[in-house]
Amino acid sequence: MSEAVVKKSVNYKKIGLILGIVFAVLLVVYFGVSMYFKSHFFFRSTLNGVNSSGVTVDTVMKKIESKADNYALSIEGTNKKEQIKPNQIDMEVANSKSEFEKALKEQNEFAWIGALFSPRHYESKVVVNYDDTKLDERISNLSDVKNESPVKTENAKVDYTKDGFVVKKEVYGTEVDMDTLKKVISSKIMTLDPKVNLKAEKCYVQPTLKADNSSLKDSAEELNKKIKVSITYTVGGATEKISKDTLASFMTNNDKGEVSYNNETIAEFVAEMAHKYDTAGKPKTLTTYTGAVVTVPGGSYGWKIDKDKEAAQLKEDIDAGKDVKRDFIYAKTAASRGENDYGNSYIEVNRTGQYMVVHKDGAVVLQSKVVTGKDNPKNMTHPGAYYVVGKKQNATLKGPTWNSKVSYWMPFNGGEGLHDAVWQPSFGGTYYKIRGSHGCVNLPLNVAGSLYNIVSAGYPVLIYDLPGSEDNEPNQKDAQAIIDAINAIGEVTPASQATIEDIRKRTFRLTPEANAMITNIQVLNDAEANLKNQLAAQGVDWNPPTKAEKSEE
Questions:
Q1: Among 481, 484, 462, CA closest to 418
Q2: What's the fold here for domain 55-100+120-212?
Q3: CA angle 321-326-332, nearest 5°?
Q4: pLDDT tens digits, residue range 299-329?
Q5: What is the mean pLDDT of residues 161-188?
Q6: Nearest to 297 by CA among 414, 417, 381, 416
Q7: What are phi and psi for residue 425, nearest 5 degrees?
Q8: What is the three-class DSSP state of 97?
Q9: CATH number for the 215-279+294-332 domain, one of 3.10.20.800, 2.40.70.10, 3.10.20.30, 3.40.50.300?
Q10: Where are the beta strands (DSSP E) in 316-402?
Q11: What is the C-alpha to C-alpha distance for residues 523 and 501, in angstroms, rounded to an integer?
């Protein structure tokens, strides 16, 4: 029993002795190798890209010098391979042993075992020198740099297709990123790396947004929801539905994938609708009280889409995500959406015939002779389709040279309006040519009062010309009165002075048409000459009146 224990004890001593010897040997080897790597680079190491595995600084320097002797940088671009040679950039090796030794000292010689599993790569600050300006010049002459029509780099984006909005992949173009290109080439030269692939080294402008970006996918989903909204306009008996493609054009997204509205496109659409459906400012057809059909020039009356409010409402409708049926939002509305937007209640004023007719619910309810603006561009009553802006009693109309009080005032076009004019001795005919207003339509007092009770704000006013509808009856009547007065002069004596002067002054108040109808005007001329001679014989210097009296407003 005791003999077995002794034997076992002897075995443990042998094992311990063997292990101790092995450990000592390994320790010697470890320290020996460590001492080796104090002057040699680790296995599987490089220095500035040159294999430095297990060699000294001197050996690495020789390798670099040997490599530099035959060095050229091969550049693989889009369609062509090119080279940069040392003599093109005045390149020379500038090895510094102290710099290489510094790299070696950074190596912990006792960590050589780890280097067996993890390669080490060392960098020296100085390997080669070159002329930076010549390198820039050489780089600028590379075919990819000189390419005048490179493929443009594009970020991934949300694009509209026949299938709706989709994420379109980014495009890797061939536009050179000069900063990156120079850095890469400089690095390759400094380490005597013989090759550079511009695409692999990302020397082309790189997209900053790629198709896998979640915000782009979210944007596409949001946009596809928006274009599913149905928006239909009902305009009178017509309908106008916005197409899916048009809705898509209303929206856009930026480089971050954020969805927004394309206000310019929306404004263009609304303007197109305004051009199609607005009637304000457009000529109108009118069957006049005479039965003749005229074209009334465009004016303020009619339908007019409020472009800003309509654009804003359109975006609200899309955002709401619900189907919509509605009319446009208008800045101005009219009575009808039919053939004639003024409906069957309106005022028509025939400038040629100096006549007004008022229609209400399809029936003529008032008509009268009128006096419109003077027959000149400055004071004329402008033809066009307007509407009564409002109405006021006992108004004072003021201008540069007039201040007139009226009982009934109904403006329709800026300073032009309908009102009573008690200063007008008569209406109709062609009186407007000599007694015309400054643009207003003058009415008899009782007519103005009746009109005031009929119309309200928004009532259409249609002003037009109708050649051939001139009313000469007032001219004939006035001319006949003068003819009769001339015939009644009789024998001319100094006592006839007042009568002759009155007749002449009355001719000044006639229209040109009425004056042309006075068939015995020569009798008046002779009477004035006879009277002048008689008064001269009495020592009286007398001349007939030659100027018209100043007319009212």
A1: 462
A2: Ubiquitin-like (UB roll) (3.10.20)
A3: 130
A4: 999 999 999 999 999 999 999 999 999 999 9
A5: 93
A6: 381
A7: -70, -25
A8: helix
A9: 3.10.20.800
A10: 324-326, 330-332, 346-350, 355-360, 363-369, 384-387, 392-398
A11: 14
